[in-house]
Design goal:
Layout (H helix, E strand, L loop, with lengths): L2 H27 L6 H5 L2 H21 L4 H7 L2 H14 L5 H23 L2
Helix pairs in contact: 1-3, 1-4, 1-5, 5-6
């Protein structure tokens, strides 16, 4: 596998990991108390932080093999995954504006991908 493709796959996996991290952070934030014992037993919050760290490590690994100008915009897909996961895990509501936002994010990431292949 080409190292640049590996970098893109790592970032894509990272966007999914960070999206679940955001879901867990939200679940943990609903029960947050600024008391050390409560923070240490807020497992949703802890899982969210661990997932964020995992996603950062995936992204750092991807940067070793790919261009930042291509990889960083792919991170915007995390917004897409969170928007799609939130109704299921958090009872959020998707309206037309959110669906349009998802569409434009996907278009933007696609244009950057196409531009990077055609630009070199």
């Amino acid at each position: 596998m080409d190292k640049k493709n590996l970098a893109i796959i790592l970032v894509l996996i990272g966007t999914i990991v960070i999206s679940f991290g955001q879901i867990f952070l939200k679940l943990g934030a609903n029960n947050i108390k600024l008391d050390i014992l409560h923070l240490l037993t807020n497992y949703s919050l802890i899982i969210g932080v661990i997932l964020y760290l995992g996603a950062a490590l995936l992204f750092a690994s991807a940067l070793k093999h790919g261009d930042l100008s291509v990889l960083y915009p792919i991170n915007a897909l995390a917004y897409v995954w969170v928007s799609l996961l939130s109704p299921y895990f958090l009872d959020d509501f998707m309206n037309l504006t959110k669906w349009l936002g998802i569409f434009f994010i996907i278009c933007g990431v696609s244009f950057i991908g196409w531009g990077s292949k055609n630009g070199r």
